[in-house]
Fold:
Amino acid sequence: MTVKILRLGHRPSRDKRVTTHLLLAARALGASGAIYTGVKDDQLEKRIQGINLSWGGCFEISFAKDWSKEIKSWKKHGKVVHLTMYGLSIKKVIEEIRRDESDKLIIVGGAKVPGEVFNIADWNVSITSQPHSEVSALAIFLHELFDGNELNLTFEKARLRIVPQGQGKKVIESQDNV
Ligand code: SAM
Structure:
């Protein structure tokens, strides 16, 4: 199952850090890429590509002008999950989403999410019915979707690799990917 994120309505001036954090969480926790809408942000794209070069993997990032087109084109082969505090509890729907083997597009909002997104989604899913952050909502959703297995992922062609330590830091730099 391929999992991609659709981040709606990115505004570089306001969302620089939060969209970066959202995409870092998506990458680290097993999504294969992200599409973002709103305002094209070359710095954001460079930042994420830089992370791939240092830490491995091939997390894709692309900009789309029209979210509706992206969703419709995704629905030709996959299904759509919209993360929203108004949706059904993740506890109620995660089994069904996991069992469904089709590719998944996970929509997360920024500013106001258009009402049409609620209708087009196959699942509107809440991570508690309280407002919080797209980063925490996505992280918990991916953790549940992959049943914790995403915590053991390794990233190919990493230049830097951390050797986990009880104390201190140990990072190995590979000369192959310099
Ligand atoms: N509604 C506010 C606005 O208009 O600016 C803030 C939106 S919220 C910070 C951004 C996104 O976080 C939402 O669109 C949703 O995808 C996600 N989110 C926040 N709380 C959530 C929750 N309890 N369950 C699922 N997703 C949530």
Q: What stands out?
A: Helices lie at 12-28, 42-55, 67-74, 90-99, 115-120, 134-145. Residues 127 and 137 are 6 Å apart (CA to CA).
